[in-house]
Design a protein that fits this description.
Blueprint: E1 8-13, E2 18-21, H1 24-31, E3 38-43, E4 46-51, E5 56-58, E6 65-70, E7 76-85, E8 90-92, H2 107-116, E9 121-126, E10 129-134, E11 139-142, E12 148-162, E13 179-180, E14 182-184, E15 193-198, E16 204-206, H3 216-225, E17 230-235, E18 238-243, E19 248-251, E20 257-265, E21 271-273, E22 278-281, E23 287-289, H4 303-312, E24 317-321, E25 326-330, E26 335-338, E27 344-349
Parallel strand pairs: 2-13
Antiparallel strand pairs: 1-2, 1-6, 3-4, 3-14, 4-5, 7-8, 7-12, 9-10, 10-11, 11-12, 15-16, 15-20, 17-18, 18-19, 19-20, 20-21, 22-23, 22-27, 24-25, 25-26, 26-27
Length: 350
């Protein structure tokens, strides 16, 4: 762990030494989103764009470099997700995609193959098709149709597991204690909360004035007043409505939708996405939490499980079961459907 208590550290090379980037939890949060290509940070030397796939910088200074270090003990490793670009979304292997097909090959299978030979490839069969993933170029090829899909390997946000295998070791941090400052993305000092929307090319961007009529402080104030409500804002020539329940914004003219996220820090400045609860409206009209377990009223998904699936694919769906029935939760519609009876109930994220 580094000084902030995180198991990762993002650093910039300033031409002479590696320096830690302040508030690098925001970079990490973006990096863990499979659809994010990169992020722009504003430094005292100008704006720099970090390309997550190539781990390179685009900006005015060619002598700068970026890297991400993992600071884990010998018996820990990060939980890694492996994703392929489906027709519409980035989908994790082993999780149902937008075509409603589920791969029998999981992220864990890919990670084992990758750790054994990072410069090699992995061939597997799903249904009647065989595929090969080339690790150096991160590309999947259907060996029958030759159709190719991009592949990405990203860590799960703030997720580590203990192992009994000494091979799972990571490079220790060699950074100095001096931080490399940048203005954005950053936490609002008065609220310790940052609100962001998914911008073009899969990059999370802060709500900031004067580009937006509202900033994180304004949005957070309304959110605290009514977490199930909505708020109107203006950006450029357009007006938008931000819906807290579904965590998305709608362009009121073109009706296009963008995902929204809320990031907060605890009192020790160790930051993460704010604790989220998932609830369904039961037959008695009361909102009830998703509770994982085998007892009455419990199911195979906890709020944490649902949030993880939601962050991986905010417009997708996930299936789960209770002692009696199987259900599907549609993140776009924010509903759960009993797959046996067809009964549909509202779901919310608070």
């Amino acid at each position: 762990m580094n000084a902030s208590g995180n198991h990762y550290e993002w650093q910039l090379f300033n031409g002479q030494q590696w320096l830690q980037i302040k508030n690098d939890h925001i970079i990490e949060c973006n990096y863990c989103q499979p659809g994010a290509k990169g992020i722009t940070i504003d430094t005292h030397m100008g704006s720099l764009y970090i390309d997550f796939d190539s781990m390179t910088l685009r900006g005015p200074f060619a002598n700068l470099a970026v890297r991400r270090l993992s600071n884990l003990s010998h018996n820990q490793r990060e939980v890694m997700g492996w994703y392929y670009r489906d027709n519409s979304y980035w989908c994790e292997y082993g999780v149902q995609g937008s075509s409603y097909r589920t791969s029998s090959i999981s992220s864990q299978d890919f990670e084992q193959q990758y750790n054994a030979n990072p410069t090699g490839s992995f061939q597997f069969t799903v249904g009647r098709y065989s595929y090969i993933v080339n690790f150096p170029v991160m590309m999947q090829t259907n060996l029958s149709t030759l159709k190719q899909r991009k592949v990405r390997r990203r860590p799960k946000f703030n997720s580590t597991v203990y192992v009994n295998n000494s091979l799972n070791t990571f490079e220790p941090s060699t950074s100095t204690i001096n931080p490399f400052p940048f203005a954005t993305p950053s936490l609002n000092p008065s609220t310790a909360v940052t609100w962001q929307f998914m911008g073009d090319e899969g990059i999370w961007r802060d709500y900031q004035k004067p580009n937006s009529s509202l900033d994180s402080m304004d949005i957070e104030r309304e959110y605290q007043r009514n977490p199930q409500g909505q708020i109107a804002l203006t950006a450029g020539h357009f007006t938008y409505t931000l819906y807290f329940n579904g965590m998305y914004q709608i362009n009121n003219t073109y009706k296009t939708r963008r995902a929204v996220q809320r990031i907060c820090a605890d009192e020790n400045s160790s930051s993460t996405q704010c604790q989220v609860r998932w609830q369904f409206k039961d037959i008695d009209g009361y909102w009830k939490d998703f509770v994982k377990g085998k007892g009455s009223g419990n199911c195979t998904m906890s709020s944490q499980d649902l949030e993880l699936h939601f962050q991986q694919n905010r417009t997708g769906a996930v299936t789960y079961s209770t002692r009696t029935f199987n259900y599907q939760l549609d993140f776009s519609a924010m509903t759960q459907t009993n797959l046996a009876t067809g009964t549909r109930r509202p779901v919310r994220r608070v």
